[in-house]
Amino acid sequence: MTNDGPISRRAARRAKARRRRRRNTAVGLSVVVVAAVATGWAVLGRGGSPAGAAATPRATDTKAPPASATDTVTATKAAHEPAGTITLAFAGDVHFTERTANRLGVDPALGPMSQALTAADFSMVNLETAITTRGTPQPKKYHFRTSPDALGALQRSGIDAVTMANNHAVDYGPQGLTDSLAAQRSSPIPVVGIGPDDTAAYRPYVTTVNGVRLAVVAASQVQDYTNQAFRAGPDRPGIASALDRPKLLAAVRDARKQADVVVVYLHWGTEGQSCPGPEQKSIAADLSEAGATAVVGTHAHVMLGSGMLGPTYVAYGFGNFLWYGSSPYPHSDQTGVTTLTVTGGKVAKAVFTPALVDGNGVPEPQTGAAGRTITDRYEGLRGCTGLKAPPS
């Protein structure tokens, strides 16, 4: 929830709805053009409500429910699809530090790729940072942090939810975690995968978009210091861990009972490796059996392949997106936005819009030969995944 009173929230939502209508009318033609370009380089198959979660920027919610209840959200933007169909857009790792710190003062913070994210009914990224100005750096090599302004900046870039279930969410220890949880409570968008206890950290964020009930769960499978020292438990704040597989699967089954579409966003894989490891394939299969519509994620700093695992769409790695520096791995600057069309609870289409992280850490859209190079390589990455191409 925001800190505004109910009347202010309603007024703000009405104002945003009016702005969206004006924007949609003014830029309708440009949206068609952008969509046509994206389709030209499309790669088919490539590639609860947490404590303190607030409404998505393209939806309005009712008064915040108690922790045991579920958000009821009704989409306010004009749907681009028939009732019962939604589009979901995903991108990779984001943070605001070093060369990307100044993006907090730029709208949209995610640059021109925000168009692909805003065009979807629901968009999500991984926020790979603590949200604090305090705390003590933990015993690890890299430390990332930002201010709560990052959440508003992402909202203005078209993002509807973020996950903080990753290996940098608690880079500044217990005090930094306390601040991150405070930012979660006042966030303008839902923050999943982290909470004051395990119940909150694993709790699905549930929303209704275009008549479709959507649930999102997040967790980290990375075996690292954060997952060991700051794993959420009873009366213990921290991140949701995929290493506790029974607890994660229970959360997904619970989400399945509440929603038509279930997305699981994981932090997983091995840095620099563009093929999924056996632990990724194993948990993807379990999550599919538990009812996940899509299992997606990041961590490796490079893209991994994607496709269908039975009825479930799996994207093993989106790579870097808004990134503070160059990763020491080949192709680590290649990235993009994956947009899924889901109809009747099943993935009907997957479209990849390619991008390249520039010298300022911002993902820039790629078309022509440059776009083909990235999308062709992304398509080829499916070869080591065991996944099938999604329906077109």
Which radius of gyration do the C-alpha atoms yield?
19 Å
The overall pLDDT, averaged over residues, is 85
| C-alpha geometry | globular
Q: What is the annotated CATH architecture?
A: 4-Layer Sandwich
Order of helices and strands: HHEEEHEEEHEHEEHEEHEHEHEEEEEEEH
Tell me what you see in this structure.
- Helices cover 28% and strands 25% of the residues.
- With 392 residues, it is α/β, with parallel strands linked by helices.
- The chain has a single domain (6-384), classed as 4-Layer Sandwich (Purple Acid Phosphatase, chain A, domain 2).
- The strands form five sheets. Strands 3, 4, 7, 8, 17, 18, 19 and 20 form an eight-stranded mixed beta sheet that branches.
- A hairpin with a 2-residue loop joins β18 and β19.
- α8 packs parallel to α9.
Describe the SSE topology.
Blueprint: H1 6-26, H2 28-40, E1 59-61, E2 73-75, E3 85-94, H3 114-119, E4 122-127, E5 130-131, E6 145-146, H4 149-156, E7 161-163, H5 173-185, E8 191-192, E9 194-195, H6 198-202, E10 205-209, E11 212-220, H7 225-229, E12 238-239, H8 245-258, E13 261-267, H9 278-290, E14 294-298, E15 306-309, E16 312-315, E17 320-322, E18 334-343, E19 346-357, E20 363-365, H10 368-380
Parallel strand pairs: 3-4, 3-17, 4-7, 5-6, 7-8, 11-13, 13-14, 14-16
Antiparallel strand pairs: 1-2, 3-18, 9-12, 10-11, 15-16, 18-19, 19-20
Short description:
This protein is α/β, with parallel strands linked by helices and 392 residues long.
